[in-house]
Amino acid sequence: MTKISLFSQIISLLPRNSFEELTNKYQSDKCNKGINSWTHLVSMLFCHIGQASSVRDISNGLRSITGNLNHLGVRCAPSKSAISYINQHRNWQLFRDYYNDLLKHFQKQHTFIRSRLNRLRRKIFILDATIIPLCLSVFNWAKFRSQKGAVKLHLMLDYDGCLPVFADLTSGKVHEINIARQAQYPKGSVLVFDLGYIDFKWLHILDSKSIFFVTRAKDNMDYQIVKDHDTITMDNDYMFEDVSIILSNPQSYQNYPGRLRLVKIWDKELNCEMTFLTNNFFWTAKTVAEIYKERWNIEIFFKSLKQHLRIKTFVGTSPNAVMIQIWTALIAILILTFLKAKAEYQWHLSNLITFVRLNLFVKIDLFSWLNNPFYKKSMPLDYQLSLFSG
Question: For residue range 12-31, what is the model confidence (pLDDT) as tens digits?
Fold first, then answer.
């Protein structure tokens, strides 16, 4: 039996050296109201993993475990006013850069593998964005509609491990393609995205850089067939059409003068026709369909982020506080994904988050518990029989 809580053991996985370097870089411990950057990070991770709904809950929750604060690297629990102050004034870029350092740190300790598409050696990245609603009367800087507030979280997931390698938070009005154009992608990689990212000028830039893409084709897309490929029956999907095309619309053709590949299938599971667009002419039609279906992983990621961490409600109202809360949420889900990958027990991420929360301050060995969370010590047979005697 260990003398350190699960939360303390989770925090001990975080490299302090790189965090201290970033603290010095951003000078984030100046004018800190007595709460240093590490205490701030621990407080926000407690907010997410422990589902604290306010600065009062964060403060009271940490104050109630005073005997374990030293194990967290925290000298004293922050007050609610201190949390509010540092959320408003500490540079949120500290937590963004620490997420990137932490991702590299965990990738060195564990090789994250993909669940499917193992035969495809190329790196696969999934792009998408999600709206996070905000109350306009409270977050008056986040105007989205006439009477609604919102920010938009843009993510790029690495399919190996389904973890964000790029994230940006913008006004809810910013279109996702504007952020996608700014990101950098490795040569030879594969991008998967939905209809919202279709911009033929950008797609042509990707093609010129030897970057492959797979997306859905718009229903009203004008095109001309230049080559008809063989159609075959796939395991779960029936392919209607596999053709090479050029765009018919003059403006579209000017933006993308090259050939594209269009694949139409009937999806038996969804009971609908699906049309895919790609610039790769060597994959089988089945591979094209399978690559696009893996886009669903980013929807699952957004769902986990919103349902199990503090993303839909915020403990601060300033833009800086919102940025800090979102980046610390990404740090929290990165840690939990790492624990899921290292555990011998086959956890679902949602179950792991819930079980960690329920046992946050239980003093038990972290990885022994992760590997065997439902271990029960059996009673001797004689003792069990004695329960029914007399």
Answer: 999 999 999 999 999 998 86
Contacts of 259 (CB under 8 A, 6+ apart): 226, 244, 245, 246, 281
Q: Quote the strand ranges of 109-189, DSSP E.
A: 124-134, 149-158, 163-171
Q: Is 16 helix (H, G, I), strand (E, B) or coil?
A: helix
Which phi-psi region, left, alpha or beta, contains residue 34 (left: φ > 0; alpha: ψ -120 to 50)? left
3-state class (DSSP) for residue 30: coil
Kindly tell me if the per-residue pLDDT of 388 is higher than 70.
no
Q: What is the DSSP letter of 66?
A: G
Residues 215 and 192: beta-carbon distance below 8 Å: yes
Alpha helix positions (H), 221-378? 250-255, 285-293, 296-308, 319-342, 349-358, 366-371
Q: What is the DSSP string of 197-214?
A: G--HHHHHHHHHTT-EEE
* pLDDT mean over 161-184: 92
Task: Classify strands 237-247 and 260-267 as parallel, antiparallel or unpaired.
Answer: antiparallel
Report the alpha-carbon distance of residue 339 to residue 346 in Å, rounded. 11
Instruction: Report whether 212 contacts 277 (CB < 8 A).
Output: no
Output the pLDDT for position 375: 65
Rounded to the nearest 10 degrees, the angle between the axes of helix 319-342 and helix 80-89 is: 100
C-alpha to C-alpha distance for 283 and 304, rounded to whole angstroms: 32
What's the whole-number mean pLDDT along residues 68-75?
Answer: 85
> What is residue 75's predicted lDDT score, i.e. its pLDDT?
85
Q: For tokens 């982020």, what's the residue?
A: 305
237 pLDDT tier (thresholds 50, 70, 90): low
